[in-house]
């Protein structure tokens, strides 16, 4: 059965984003099997995009049709760039290019941590579906893949049931890890951020920049999709700012790697750092190229908005009302990520965007939060913010009248 352009675009986008998550997880856990799954997904993305291009050519019967579909093809090229970069990250593991152990330690404390947990004999997950569990909204953790015996499952349905022995790969806030482990019957890890001992070496500085590049690449992709869906040119320009920052980070990284090479007996282990950083920087480039579909006078093809609104995660905004739970508070006080499953990508404060706000940054009435996460988490986020628009309404927000 031939798939529609929208279905192909959704499939390619979701698969490419999953590839990035799994590729970094493969590096973090040193897992060749997981890295091989990334390469298999890359073939799926290629097949979807070839079919998509064919469908677009068949649909373009006039010059106007061709102009309208050009944006769809442009977005497809950007998605392909993300998928190719994810493949490069996976090959760092498969080709054993060298990943310093300190990098794996630091990746545990990136903006979103990656965790692996096995469902034990005594657990609260077996026989329940992902939809019933609502892990993203209850713990902030997303299941990105499941290993069941020797089989990898990543295209799972919300109605799939978990089983004893399943190995879950998850991403989310650090405080959500032990919550999932408790549900799986596993002992807590009680992750604590490592304390620095002595001075910071050149290798430490290089590793910190790789982790920061990973973080900004994920933010750039999320903001790019949000800018397109909301047709927000200010947000699109912010992606350009992030792209400039990623260039600076990569150039700085090269210098620290060269300095670190002089201190190591075996500088070969630094090759992996450069490959990971270069792939992350290319993801940011692809994110910036996406935003060009809204930088023209003509609106993007409706298929683009329809496809972006039907993916696994949704983009939602919430404006903080005076006197609400979030007014004068911060993200950590209410454990926003853990309790709603929504990751706050950026804050619009008086027309200035603050991306990846730190958990202790004070929020104020009038701040507009842009977040990414499960559909059920959007309403919870708005409740905390005192934003009374109905779920899915992205129209103009009106400040509620003050109570007498």
Task: Produce a short descriptive summary.
The protein has helices spanning 5-29, 32-59, 63-94, 101-107, 130-133, 135-139, 177-183, 202-230, 233-261, 271-290, 302-308, 336-340, 375-385, and strands at residues 113-118, 142-148, 151-153, 167-172, 314-319, 343-349, 352-355, 368-373.
Note down, in words, how this protein is organized:
This protein has helices at 5-29, 32-59, 63-94, 101-107, 130-133, 135-139, 177-183, 202-230, 233-261, 271-290, 302-308, 336-340, 375-385; strands spanning 113-118, 142-148, 151-153, 167-172, 314-319, 343-349, 352-355, 368-373. It is globular and about 60 Å long. A hairpin with a 2-residue loop joins strand 2 and strand 3. Helix content is 52%, strand content 11%. It is built from 13 helices and 8 strands. Residues 394-404 have low confidence and may be disordered. It is of the alpha+beta class and 404 residues long. Among the domains are: 112-183, Alpha-Beta Plaits (2-Layer Sandwich), CATH 3.30.70.1450; 313-385, Alpha-Beta Plaits.
């Amino acid at each position: 059965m031939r798939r529609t352009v929208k279905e192909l675009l959704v499939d390619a986008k979701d698969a490419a984003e999953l590839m990035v998550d799994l590729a970094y997880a493969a590096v973090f856990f040193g897992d060749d099997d997981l890295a091989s799954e990334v390469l298999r997904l890359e073939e799926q993305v290629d097949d979807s995009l070839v079919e998509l291009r064919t469908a677009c050519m068949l649909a373009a019967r006039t010059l106007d049709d061709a102009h309208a579909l050009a944006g769809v093809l442009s977005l497809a090229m950007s998605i392909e760039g993300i998928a190719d970069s994810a493949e490069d990250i996976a090959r760092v593991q498969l080709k054993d290019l060298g990943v310093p152990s300190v990098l794996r330690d630091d990746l545990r404390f990136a903006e979103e941590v990656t965790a692996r947990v096995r469902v034990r004999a005594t657990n609260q997950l077996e026989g329940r579906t992902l939809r019933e569990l609502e892990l993203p909204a209850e713990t902030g953790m997303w299941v990105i893949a499941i290993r069941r015996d020797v089989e990898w499952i990543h295209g799972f349905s919300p109605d799939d049931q978990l089983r004893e022995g399943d190995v879950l790969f998850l991403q989310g806030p650090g405080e959500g890890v032990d919550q999932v482990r408790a549900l799986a019957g596993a002992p807590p890890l009680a992750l604590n951020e490592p304390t620095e001992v002595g001075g910071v070496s050149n290798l430490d500085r290089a590793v910190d920049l790789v982790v920061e590049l990973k973080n900004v690449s994920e933010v750039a992709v999320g903001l790019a999709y949000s800018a397109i869906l909301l047709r927000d040119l200010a947000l699109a320009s912010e992606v350009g700012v992030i792209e400039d920052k990623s260039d600076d980070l990569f150039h700085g990284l090269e210098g620290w790697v060269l300095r670190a090479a002089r201190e190591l007996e075996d500088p070969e282990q630094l090759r992996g750092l450069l490959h990971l950083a270069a792939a992350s920087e290319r993801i940011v480039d692809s994110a910036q190229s996406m935003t060009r579909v809204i930088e023209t006078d003509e609106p993007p093809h409706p298929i683009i908005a329809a496809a972006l609104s039907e993916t696994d995660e949704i983009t939602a905004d919430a404006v903080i009302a005076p006197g609400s739970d979030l007014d004068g508070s911060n993200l950590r006080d209410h454990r926003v990520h853990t309790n709603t499953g929504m990751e706050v990508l950026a804050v619009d404060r008086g027309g200035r965007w603050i991306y990846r706000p730190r958990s202790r940054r004070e929020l104020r009435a009038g701040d507009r939060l842009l977040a990414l996460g499960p559909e059920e988490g959007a309403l919870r986020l708005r409740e905390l913010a005192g934003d009374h628009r109905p779920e899915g309404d992205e129209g103009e927000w009106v400040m509620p009248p003050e109570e007498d």
